[in-house]
Backbone:
């Protein structure tokens, strides 16, 4: 279904006109054999500059180069050195200094290599494509890159690649921690999608069914396999990479990260932001999202136990400012600005809440199976286990759960729980499930 959406402009039932610029997504066994064909279609250049690192060259680059060379492509390599390549300005400059006008830019890697190449291509005003080497994150089809500039992680606008080429054999053999992160990032969409529906229900926020389903359909294939979940089965790996790529497409469709990033991502961003203070080796992005989703799925389940007729709506700006300053400290400035931006639009009136009570409970009820199955897979020994969860100090997880929702001006289940004065209490109750 996805390929029909590519390289096209169409009007949607949601009222928007959607446009996806990506021209080709190729996910199959021996996908590299078709690489020359894809390149022929995308560019008239017969020189290619491939960006990779040592690991991605071994995993996929070498084979891809051989196939391209046999079809008379001239391939130059820029292999970024180091065992752990980071997306910083040093590495970005290496690519920028190397790019020439007569070469087509082809990234070979996952998170970092893709982010660096996308941003370099954008800066030079050229197109690029990517060979996916691991199903580890949802950034392949994305139009933003995270680059660390002077020690600070920043998000930059870029352009999505023209083509994404994924060889299933390569993906299946990716390192365990990368696949783990991919499952975490994708399974987390169970709550980002619910958060989106919740905001649509309570505030009539814009919603697009198509964007919703291109993520949910693949996600559901993973959580609902008859054969049961298998970490490296071809079927699950294919749904995983599709779900991750489709998350990027969904974001392009609606022009924001709304479908793919909700309460679970805010919690993960908080952990990322404050993790440096603890000077610990942190799990990868998607793994943190998976850990957060263990809690956000529980938050949804807990909604069923709340007596809405007795709730106390708390909407006190002074209080929120005080807490933000107290928790975010020298990082408070943008968070306080968020609070200003969201204050009016997040104001939930008691009457509205009581009128929506049935619909909220119905939302949970209709998605109960998905929530429970998501939790089940997240807790398989290969995906997440208590040792991984405990890599994050309890206090950090606690603060992320209680105050992470302040990071983005986006209504989620955690925003709702805070407003009905249940978030802190529920966090204290649930945290002990995983930290004993
Ligand atoms: Zn993510
Ligand atoms: Zn739409």
Residues:
């Amino acid at each position: 279904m996805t390929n029909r959406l590519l390289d096209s402009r169409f009007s949607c039932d949601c009222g928007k006109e959607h446009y996806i610029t990506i021209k080709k997504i190729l996910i199959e066994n021996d996908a590299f054999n078709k690489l020359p064909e894809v390149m022929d279609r995308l560019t008239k250049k017969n020189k290619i500059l491939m960006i990779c690192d040592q690991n991605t060259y071994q995993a996929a680059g070498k084979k891809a180069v051989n196939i391209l060379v046999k079809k008379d492509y001239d391939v130059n390599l820029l292999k970024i050195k180091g065992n752990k390549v980071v997306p910083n300005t040093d590495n970005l400059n290496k690519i920028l200094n190397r790019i020439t006008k007569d070469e087509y830019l082809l990234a070979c890697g996952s998170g970092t290599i893709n982010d660096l190449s996308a941003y370099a291509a954008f800066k030079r005003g050229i197109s690029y494509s990517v060979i996916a080497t691991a199903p580890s994150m949802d950034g392949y089809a994305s139009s933003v890159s995270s680059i660390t500039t002077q020690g600070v992680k920043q998000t930059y606008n870029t352009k999505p690649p023209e083509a994404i080429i994924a060889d299933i054999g390569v993906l299946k053999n990716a390192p365990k921690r990368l696949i783990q992160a991919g499952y975490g990032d994708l399974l987390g969409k169970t709550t980002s999608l619910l958060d989106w529906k919740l905001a649509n229900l309570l505030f009539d926020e814009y919603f697009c069914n198509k964007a919703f389903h291109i993520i949910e359909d693949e996600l559901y294939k993973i959580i609902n396999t008859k054969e049961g979940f298998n970490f490296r089965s071809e079927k699950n790996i294919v749904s995983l990479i599709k779900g991750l790529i489709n998350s990027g497409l969904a974001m392009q469709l609606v022009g924001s990260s709304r479908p793919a990033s909700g309460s679970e991502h805010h919690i993960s961003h908080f952990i990322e932001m404050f993790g440096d203070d603890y000077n610990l080796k942190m799990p990868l992005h998607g793994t943190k999202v998976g850990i957060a989703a263990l809690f956000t799925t529980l938050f949804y389940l807990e909604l069923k136990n709340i007596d809405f007729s007795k709730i106390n709506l708390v909407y006190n700006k002074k209080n929120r400012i005080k807490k933000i300053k107290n928790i975010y400290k020298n990082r408070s400035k943008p968070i306080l600005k968020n609070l200003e931006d969201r204050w009016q639009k997040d104001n939930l009136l008691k009457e509205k809440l009581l009128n929506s009570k049935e619909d909220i409970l119905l939302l949970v009820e209709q998605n109960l199976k998905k929530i429970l199955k998501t939790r089940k897979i997240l807790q398989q020994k290969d995906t997440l286990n208590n040792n991984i969860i405990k890599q994050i100090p309890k206090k950090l997880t606690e603060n992320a759960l209680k105050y992470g929702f302040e990071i983005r001006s986006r209504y989620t289940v955690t925003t709702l729980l805070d407003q009905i004065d249940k978030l802190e209490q529920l966090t204290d109750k649930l945290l002990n499930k995983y930290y004993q």
Remarks:
- The chain has a mean pLDDT of 93.
- Residues 234-254 form the longest helix (21 residues).
- The domain at 178-434 is CATH 1.20.1090.10 (Dehydroquinate synthase-like, alpha domain).
